Amino acid sequence: MAKSKLAQANDKIAEAVVEGYKKIEDGVVGGYKKIEDGVVEGFTKMTDKFVDQFLTREGESVEEAKARMTDAQIHKEEKEDQK
User: Fold this and answer.
1) Three-state secondary-structure class, residue 18
2) pLDDT digit string (tens) for the chain, length 83 residues
3) Residue 82: what are its φ and ψ, rounded to 5°?
4) What are the angstrom distances between the C-alpha of 67 and each of 9, 41, 45, 71, 74?
5) What is the value of pTM for the model shown?
6) Contact at 8 Å (CB) between 65 and 57?
7) Three-point CA angle 60, 80, 70, nearest 5°
């Protein structure tokens, strides 16, 4: 069955609207991800600097200090759960 001209025009309009929406959505999501990545990177740099200055032990790297503190926190929580 052949579609009427009105139905064909409606389909073209619907496709254009969906395509436009997807382009806008991709732009917004892409922009959000760039902002999020920048914020996370900045926060990570700030926490690394803090850990390096105040929480590392002699000869310990920032990653080692973070792992040590994470292990200590887990151990503390397990100990509290046993009470």
Assistant:
1) helix
2) 567 899 999 999 999 999 999 999 999 999 999 999 999 999 999 999 999 999 999 999 999 999 999 999 999 999 888 87
3) -75, -15
4) 61, 19, 16, 6, 11
5) 0.64
6) yes
7) 20
